[in-house]
Amino acid sequence: MSEPSSSAAPHLRRLLALLADDAPAEALGAVSSAARAAGVPAQDLAEVEGAVATALRIRGALRQHRRRELQLTALFDTAGDLAASRDLDDVLKAIVRRARMLLGTDTAYLTLPDEEAGDTYMRVTDGSVSVLFQRLRLELGEGLGGLVAQTASPYATPDYRTDERFRHTENINAGVLAEGLVAILGVPLLLGSSRGGTGKVIGVLFAADRSPRVFSPDEVALLCSLAAHAAIAIDTARALADTGAALAELAQANAELAEANAAVREHSAAMQRAEEAHDRLTDLVLRGGDVTDVATSVAGLLDSPLTIHDPGGRPLAAVRPDGTACAADSTDAVWLAETAEESRAQGRAVHRDGRWICAVLAGQELLASLVLHQRRRLDDSDRRLFERAAVVTGLLLLLRRTVAETENRIRGELISDLLGDAERDPAGLAERGRRLGIDLDRPRLLLVAESGARERLGAAAMRYLFGGDIHGVSAEHAGTVVLLVDHAGADDTTGGGPLSGRSPGEVARAAAVQLGHLVQAPVTVAAAGPAGGPRELAAAYAEAARCLRAMRVLGRAGEGACVDELGFLGVVLGNAQDVDGFVLATLGPLLRYDERRGTHLVRTLSAYFGAGGSLIRAKDELHVHVNTVVQRLDRIQVLLGRDWNEPARALELQLALRLHLLGGGREG
């Protein structure tokens, strides 16, 4: 380049001064215009214009360097914030604010995915004025942010409203419109990115203007750098949170470790107690112990009173922790049954009203209930011990039942022979009874039971005899079940016992209720006795069988009674073969006459006999005139014959009337 002429020198000095002052490009360009206006020769003017062009390039390079310097400073500041701050919100707010400042946009914001809700939400905004925009939530894959997240690449749009590259939704459009945004740039927050891979997108950083704008590659790169810092900040915060949680768990572990020795000691003591309990209960089974032995052992091990009840709520055993017997508490049978059912359903012991209850089961059959009178909660080892005691109790009860059923079958054969032909060999029957442990000469009640559920009645009778403190023997005979029960108790020689002082009818009614509960169907029971000796027992069976037949005729199925309670009708019905035929043969003319003509001859005859043959009392009972009674009796005489009021015929008529009414007939 040649030396500048004197005419160009002032303009060149002016150009250098403007360049040094970082004057705007317009001021630099004005130097060429000033030189031209001053009449600088063409050669010198070309020199000035070349210098202006060079100055503009220098100015652009300097401004770009300064901008990169500012960007690097911002990135260094962000890195410093990231290193110094432990508050994720503060770091993210600083990043979003710097993005807005460095790119010179109207707003900047950052979105993160909500894994629980399955969408994306606004985490941080800067420069936003719309509450709707600040609370905006986006479904995954929607809008420009969805495109950025799916492709893990930056995307920019000069005019969001007209850009069709991404899916617009009414929700997003409403938020963008409320904020007034037009140009938007979004870049992904990437974690774990490496050469050959894009990493995981954990959010999107945006810069946006409220007027159309094209974002330069430098601006995209700058926002990507800030997004990388944001990703690091989020990852660091998560790592710190995980570290804090790990430290908290470690502290908890140390605290638990301090309790470990105590727990080990408690466990060792529990294991020792469980081993002792196992040895005790095993020994009980091996030496043939009973439920009282189980109750004694468990009450001592758990240091609480314990009672065992049969399915009906009756106590089978009741002991204190020291092994002494105690009176059974007044446990409500309904409450116990409901609680035992709850224990059966759960398959374990339950705690109710200050007591622990465990059902003793054989399959689905309830054999008994264990009740531990302990208000405190049982730990796992004690609870398992209590439940194991229920298993052992069930095993002992099943063994007891099996032995009893075997003995009962053998003794039942004796009862069948006794009832079949007691006259054949009474002495031999008595001797067989003594060999089987049955004293046939001892007075016993004889019960005869029948039910529609005949196949279950035999087993129910054995459970009735051996499930509680009723002692006796049962056998199936002639389609019914016969029970011989001790009237004074098995071990009672003083007249006491569970059935002492109770009449045969009372015993029959109680047996009908209990057998019906066991069979789950109505059971009819007839009783006779007490009787002792083969002949007397056979006679008592015949009496009970007649009573059962009479109850069947009288429609008293599912009840219990004895012959004495049925009176003369019981004797008659017990031996009658055709009650309906007898009633029809005796009262048939009156019944047919009343049915055809709608009269009341049967009712009049019943009222007449009920009044002792008094016409006055009969007419008061019937609420008619005495002449009407006389007229009706005349008609009865015509239909039945002149001897209808003779003593023998009158007795027959009165019996037929009573049977007619008991059978459900109307008086007319």
Please tell me about this protein's structure.
This protein has 668 residues and is an alpha+beta fold. The chain is 57% helix and 15% strand. The protein is built from 21 helices and 16 strands. The chain has helices at 9-20, 25-37, 42-84, 88-103, 131-134, 143-151, 170-179, 217-286, 291-302, 333-346, 380-420, 426-435, 454-466, 504-519, 534-553, 563-575, 579-597, 601-610, 615-622, 626-640, 647-662, and strands at 107-114, 119-126, 137-139, 155-157, 183-191, 200-209, 306-309, 315-319, 350-352, 355-362, 365-372, 444-451, 472-477, 480-486, 523-531, 560-562. The strands form 3 sheets. A 6-stranded antiparallel sheet has the order 3-2-1-6-5-4, sandwiched between helices. The protein has a 5-stranded antiparallel sheet with strand order 8-7-11-10-9. Helix 3 packs parallel to helix 8 (217-286), helix 15 (534-553) crosses helix 16 (563-575) and helix 17 packs across helix 21. The model is unreliable at 489-496 (pLDDT under 50).
